[in-house]
Batch of 2 targets.
Target 1
Amino acid sequence: MEDVIKSYEGKIPGVILTNLKNELSGRKVSNKEVEKILSELEMTYEKSKIASGESIGIITAESFGEPATQMTLNVFHFAGVAEVSVSRGLPRLIELFDARKTIKTPMMHIFVNSPYNKDPVKVRKLAAQIKEIKLREVATEININIPKLQVEVSFNKKKMKFLGLDEKEINASVANELKGAEVRLGTDKIILKAKETTNELLDLYKIKEKAKNAFIGGVKGVKQVLPVKSGNEFMILTAGTNLKELFKIKDVDFDRTTSNDIYEVRKILGVEAARQAIINEAMQVMEDQGLDVDLRHIMLIADLITNTGEIKGITRSGITGEKQSVLARASFETPIKHIINASMMGEKDYLNSVIENVMLNQPVPLGTGLPDLIVKMTGNKK
């Protein structure tokens, strides 16, 4: 069987051959049957290829454009948690294909390593440790002691134990966050004083307000967490994303954890992961709306956005701005600017693509316009 499959290498993609091998491994099949299966598979693969000279760009645009304009749902909320909402529908597609650097609702799907993923208590505890913890969340009170001219912070010991924090850690974090204050650990409380001051009470008030929002633990940027059951395991949804810091937490399953911020995925996991994230996110939007768009159209757009190794949006400054043809660039947006810049630099347009040939009323290099006719002369050459 191995030899028969090997003979089809180069004719059928390796991934398909591997899947077939796995599928056949537990079955009793003769070499003749394997040969027949491979022959059918090759035929199906060849049929599924796009014909040479097919205008796939326009077909992809139509395939997306029609359902995208019918989308109605804007934002999806998780029941009972106002802070955890996700952009869906057309706004999310625009974010993806324009490759926006700041997205409206950054979030992560965090999976937990076995066996902890079956225990809701452990997952809830992990979720509490992942969430960005501010000083006000573990403090019972933050007061200004006027006679001593200092801010005093008392702690909720039970909550500190649940979050796995101790007073020394909190003291160090607060000292790191509040550069303009003197921070020291008293008995059961942290004491804050102004280092240099002109108006002592006003400065103490400012220190008190800053101290409330001092970051003391968890993963920076993760504003909300929500443990949920997915299938037969528990996982964590977050509002806010920070893969780099999250991957330092030992019970997180890195292989399955995802973020919806494609720039962050590109930075931490590389361009292939970013391409896959675009495909997954776009498919998710389509499925939520009950729309059926061929996966290959989404893959084409994802390839277009990431094929340079960087993320480039389908905008005038991204992909469209990099087209070789001057007329194609001018047809998208700001035509005068493109034409003046091209004439100043002496650019040439070789009319290789569709748009520029349509503008000049010439046959486009697609379909029947792609092949050239060559006449074979017979007889003696005079």
Target 2
Amino acid sequence: MVLDSAGRERYRFSGYLPVPDFLAELYMGLAKSAFAHKNWADAERWFHAIVNEFPSTDAAPEALYWQGVSRYKASNDHHLLGQTAQEITQRYPQTSWAKRSSVWLQKAA
């Protein structure tokens, strides 16, 4: 369980995981805590770290999705969502995160 500085739960996962997956999940908790506090730069940094340091984990496609949302929230530039959707589609085409971001491809066109 990952709690923020006020003691609110921001992320939870359970079970035993290999070290890379475990670390990716911990990073996800830190990223989601930063996101909940509207600290877009820190959230983007943590999500980016998951994608780059643990690209083959189950957390990576979700992190890439939320990295794009964090960039959008910081800039209000909807084109960034389209770029994120393209990257998810290329790197993780069979995931639910590719489906979720597919609407951004239509907006970018």
